[in-house]
Amino acid sequence: MGKNRKDEQLEQFRVDDRNKKMTTNQGVKVSEDEFSLKAGLRGPTLMEDFHFREKMTHFDHERIPERVVHARGFAAHGEFELYESMEQYTKAGFLCDTSMKTPVFVRFSTVVGSKGSAETVRDVRGFATKFYTQEGNYDLVGNNMPVFFIQDAIKFPDLVHAIKPEPHNEMPQASSAHDTFWDFVANNQESAHMIMWLMSDRGIPRSFRMMEGFGVHTFRFVNAKGIAHFVKFHWKPVLGAHSLVWDEAQKISGKDPDFHRRDLYDSIESEDFPEYELGVQILAEADEFTFDFDVLDATKIWPEEDVPVKIIGKMTLNRNVDNVFAETEQVAFHTGHVVPGIDFTNDPLLQGRLFSYTDTQLIRLGGPNFHEIPINQPVCPFHNNQRDGYNRMTINKGPVSYHNNFLASNTPATSSPEEGGFEHYQEKVEGRIVRNRSDSFKDHFSQATLFWNSMSNVEKEHIAEAFCFEIGKVKNKSVKQQSVDMFANVNLELAKVIADSVGANPPTSSGSAITKASPALSQENMVKKPST
Ligand code: HEM
């Protein structure tokens, strides 16, 4: 297997400590590493033992904060190759040139559990891909489910507080089975569609190799002529999507909490490389309002029969990391890492994510220079006038570190913007400043019902069992009842089965949906019904 540009770059940072004589971090040879320096054979340890102090201090500082979500993850290197040029839709070089192989780094994760939690729990899985393109890093920070719990980023801290272990007792760990979670769900009914996915077998994947991935949001492709299309991204595993059954998932959690990482690591070591095809759903901007849902709503899919998934390339994961901390833990993905030809939309969930990732990484990775950590460095050159800060490695030459200047204009000591650089898509935006949500985001149940109706009988049984198990763990009677009533809006029979199993009153009709109309926009329904 030949080295790609990222491998070559990482090579400069690799250190082989085997059979090397020990030194301190200052390069001084160490003569003794078992006994600290003492005043007398049985006396106190001396402060002047610089080797002891350095060794202990470094150990004391080995841990960094775990990710606030997606803490438990496992990653691998690989390559992406393009089957067919997307030039018609995007000017992103790695999606136009079929002769190019783009290095990638992919981290899979569970969302809720802490860094040491079991891997086969019922949860959403993260599927984050960093493409090291010639035009900069592009991150596709996705999940294994195509929709999300909430529509607006401002609710994300509430969602996460509800799903993480309860603060007074840190229970339960990595499970969605507790009162706060179902309380959140019943009081935030936009979560209905996502909950159906989570309760389905997609919540307990068999392997990271057998998992789909989704960008979830609607993004934008922009071509060289400046023409934009909406796009949704999909990863399709070549092995197909497969799940565990709940009984297996529980037993494996006990016997092998590392089940998914072991499976990925072993398959790569034995050269049975995991492969995923990249698919795109593309929608003309003119068709923005042709659906009975809002294309900016992250709780909705675009039905594949209306907007087919076009397969455009393949990613192969072919190398395990050398060092989990240096690579898997220190990697920093961000939805805001885009390249020319890929742009954002006004999806209110995406808009909030654009703020959150760098913000959290500033503390998780110790200040503003984490782009210099080898795994985060682009493979193309990067220059600007940003300077200093904690953990700065680069030695920028010259007295001038500002733009516009006369002094350095003919020297390489400063950098200036370039023609052909990233230009934000000039979408026309107008309106009053409001905190409301468009009425077009109000339907929380139609797609959840479609999902239920698309399931086979066995899949429906699994979903019903998952609901019964999870809501069965809820202690508060009112939360139990509210949850049952909410899912009567998806399917009355399903809700009756859950009610019977968890000791709630059977819902009599589907009618308890809480939809908060947006006063400022309630006269106008901006979404037209599909014309066909
Ligand atoms: C990780 C925020 C929604 C996928 C994270 C992290 C934060 C975060 C703070 C930790 C990042 C780090 O420490 O490096 C948010 C917010 C969201 C949101 C505020 C909504 C407003 C989503 C959605 C997806 C997603 C919709 C999937 C489409 C991921 C993944 C990771 C992650 C895959 C782990 C990345 C890794 O492996 O390092 N998110 N997230 N998140 N998020 Fe989100």
Automatic annotation (TrEMBL):
The Gene Ontology biological process terms listed for this entry are: hydrogen peroxide catabolic process; response to oxidative stress
A GO cellular component term found in this entry reads: cytosol
Where are stretches of biased composition, namely Basic and acidic residues?
A: 1-20
Q: Where is heme annotated to bind?
A: 67, 107, 156, 353, 357, 364
Active site: residue positions: 70, 143
EC number in record: 1.11.1.6
Give the top-rank taxon of the lineage listed in the UniProt record for this protein.
Bacteria
Domain Catalase core as annotated: residue spans: 23-411
Cofactor(s) demanded: heme
Reaction equation(s) it catalyzes:
2 H2O2 = O2 + 2 H2O
| Region feature Disordered, mapped onto this chain | 1-25
An example of a GO molecular function for this protein is:
catalase activity
Q: Membrane spanning segments where? A: none
- List residues of cross-link (3'-histidyl-3-tyrosine (His-Tyr)): 334-357
Keyword Heme part of the UniProt annotation: yes
Q: Which keywords does the record carry?
A: Heme, Hydrogen peroxide, Iron, Metal-binding, Oxidoreductase, Peroxidase
What's the stated role of this polypeptide? Decomposes hydrogen peroxide into water and oxygen; serves to protect cells from the toxic effects of hydrogen peroxide.
Family, as annotated: Belongs to the catalase family. HPII subfamily.
Q: What is this protein called?
A: Catalase
Its lineage opens with: Bacteria, Bacillati, Bacillota, Bacilli, Bacillales
Q: Which residues of the full protein are shown?
A: 1 to 532 of 663
